[in-house]
Amino acid sequence: MPAVKQPLPDGVVAVVKRDCPTCELVAPVLDDLAQRGLELTVFTQDDPQFPPGAATVIDDTALEVSWFHEIETVPTLIKVDQGQENERIVGWSRQQWETFTGHEALGPDLPEQRPGCGSLSVDPSRVDELTVRFSGSKLRSRRIELAELEDDVEAAFDRGWSDGLPVVPPTEARVLRMLDGTTRAPDEIVATVAPDLAEVSVEQVAINAVLAGCKPEYLPVVLAAVEAACTDEFNMHGLIATTFFSGPIVIVNGPIASRIGMNSGNNVLGQGNRANLTIGRALQLVVRNIGGGRPPRNLSGNGGGSAGGIDMALMGAPSKIGLSFAEREADSPFEPLATERGLAPGTDAVTLYAGQGPTAIVDQLSRTPESLARSMAGVLATTFHPKLVIGFDAMLIVGPEHGRLFSQAGWDKARLRAELDELLVFDTDQLLRGVGGIDEGLPAEMAGTTVPKFRPGGLHIVHAGGDAGLFSAVLGGWVGGQMGSTPVTRAITGIG
Amino acid sequence: MTVVLDPTAGKSAQSIETVPRPASVEGLMIGLLDISKPRGNKFLDRLEERLVEMGAQVSRYAKPTFAKPAPVDLRHEIATNCDAVIEALAD
Questions:
Q1: Which chain B residue is nearest to residue A306, measuring alpha carbons?
Q2: Contacts of B67 in chain A (CB under 8 A)
Q3: What is the distance between the alpha carbons of residues A338 and A329, in angstroms, rounded to a whole number?
Q4: Rounded CA gap, A98 and A12, in Å?
Q5: Which terminus, N or C, of chain A has the lesser number of Cβ atoms within 10 Å?
Q6: In degrees rounded to 5, what are phi and psi of residue A66?
Q7: Are A283 and A226 in contact (CB under 8 A)?
Q8: SS (H, E, C) A192-243
């Protein structure tokens, strides 16, 4: 039978352990209180014979009562009325104990006060086992017993759970700790994951977040990312199946980013930050393990899973392993991405963008925003192909030194966007098939007009990167809008 | 012994049997599904010519975009009207 929280007996409950000098100190007081007729029940954590005397002693060496009632210190006194806890105090203080019990002259030979000791139920060497024993039953996932001689990390590779990097084995204790990161119930359904259209629960997302190496405080971000990715607008199904390069990129806004230690500065798209590297990876592992979206097993045997994977990417990109980053909001010349996309300022949010790795924009000489915007437009114009327009989205990441030039000139995001929109309109005659000796291009019937490089809403702008370097970047996207993928922004909820 | 939780949806792969390959296409309704990639239509035009020469009837369909799965209604229409379907994945 799974353990459930039992109500405490009415009256006063004391929780003690013999291996605590303060508990030894107060043992005569407990005896005294019982003899004075106080309705007293003592739960003992390590020795059923302790404390000696008149009080009713109940064996809690299994620590079930201590764990369920969240005892952190011994001795703890709890006042219980009709099964409900009304008040608790910890340690020994004559004055507190007298007020609490309504009895005077307690322990006249004892010092005025003594702090308590740590409860065995929160002992670091025991707490994981206790958590699994007493709350593991709320986990519904299938338990898989690994063989004695099986290495747990290798076992995950063998079962096809890995993206090619080692994963953290999802033990019950780790999954329960991960679930502490959210207030959402483990059995709540988060999304339906393509391509297998499998429903995924909070618990299953947590398991994959463990695999990815996330800390519990990242889980609400991962959950929001899964929700955003598994929408018709974002079109994760098409994104995982395409021959194109792109993968889901998770951009985080709001105070949660710095609270969980995400990087928005130096090396923002690179190595070195656990949150940035594991949040996107957790999303991809959900797509892989729950949705069944994975590459075919390749010749070196590392593709994993069934031979018939549906990921047809010609080359792929780092964003397919997992790419997440925080926008650098503090000194940004722009409103945050999530705010621009309709959420209240300061909202914790993720925005999912189907994109690749960065292409550098170098401009170390521009000293006016007009000149810098022209540099940026020049690089953006060649994204995907200098003669192809409208089909693909792009994201411009403005580096802080470039951003300062805009803010000093009073340019906000709308002003920069207006400038770029104007610069990124082309005569179709220059882009026709065959022009410039290049067969690729627009069909002849589009001659004699102008076209924008990007569809309306197809150019996204954020601010990120370190303090030094007169660079920005373009994250090339994928087929944009209804034909492919539209970025999706979701508020992060259930922060534990 | 280590116990871990299953990170997958716990589903085993479903095998779906394909219909038996027809001995001849004569008199059959063959659906040609254009996934809307560039020049996929040219490939299907040629297939249509060849199929008609072989005595088949041809019905043409197109996905709204190659980047998304075919809509349910379209799949149902093809399954209802056709004896077999050929999908053009060409670029």
A1: B13
A2: 235, 238, 242, 478-479, 483-485
A3: 11
A4: 13
A5: N
A6: -60, -40
A7: yes
A8: EECCCCEEEEHHHHHHHHHHHCCCHHHHHHHHHHHHHHCCCCCCHHHHHHCC
pLDDT surpasses 80 at B1: no
* Residues sharing a CB contact under 8 Å with residue A6, sequence separation 6 or more, in sequence order: A64, A65, A68
Which among A144, A199, A306 is the nearest to B4, CB-wise?
A: A144
Angle at CA A69, nearest 5°, toward A63 and A75?
75
Choosing among B2, B4, B39, which should be mutated to test the A contact, i.e. which has the most A CBs within 10 A?
B4
Tell me the average pLDDT across A438-450.
Answer: 96
Of A376 and B12, more confident: A376
Question: d(Cα A460, Cα A382) in Å, to the nearest integer?
Answer: 16
Integer Cα distance of A433 and A439 in angstroms:
5
Contact (CB, 8 A) for A164 and A284:
no
d(CA A217, CA A496): 7
- The full DSSP string for A284-320 is HHHHHHTT---PPP-TTS-S-S-TT-----SS--GGG
Q: Which residue has the higher pLDDT, B17 or A474?
A: A474
Contact check, Cβ <8 Å, B3/A152: no
- Could you read off the pLDDT of B30-42 as tens digits, one per residue? 999 998 888 888 8
**CB-based contact A160:A305 (threshold 8 Å):** yes
Q: Under DSSP, is residue A137 helix (H, G, I), strand (E, B) or coil?
A: helix
Strands A392-398 and A349-355 turn out to be unpaired
A306: pLDDT strictly greater than 50: no
* DSSP SS3 for B73: helix
A298 pLDDT band, cuts 50/70/90, is: low
Position A126, amino acid: R
> Across-strand partners of A323?
A249
pLDDT digits (tens, 9 = 90+) for A180-229: 999 999 999 999 999 999 999 999 999 999 999 999 999 999 999 999 99
User: In a 3-state reduction of DSSP, which class is residue A359?
Assistant: strand
Burial A429-443 (b: 16+ CB within 10 A, else e): eebbeebeeeeebbe
User: What is the rounded distance in angstroms from the CA atom of residue A259 to the CA atom of residue A272?
Assistant: 17
Q: Which two tokens mark A28?
A: 């005569």
Nearest by CB to B68, from A156, A207, A235: name it. Answer: A235
Q: For position A2, what pLDDT does the model report? A: 52
Q: Which residues pair with A349 in a beta bridge?
A: A253, A491
CA proximity to A352, closest of A189, A226, A200, A220: A226
Q: Which residues pair with A325 in a beta bridge?
A: A251
Contact residues for A457 (Cβ-Cβ < 8 A; gap 6+):
A480, A481, A486
* Tokens encoding A23: 């508990």
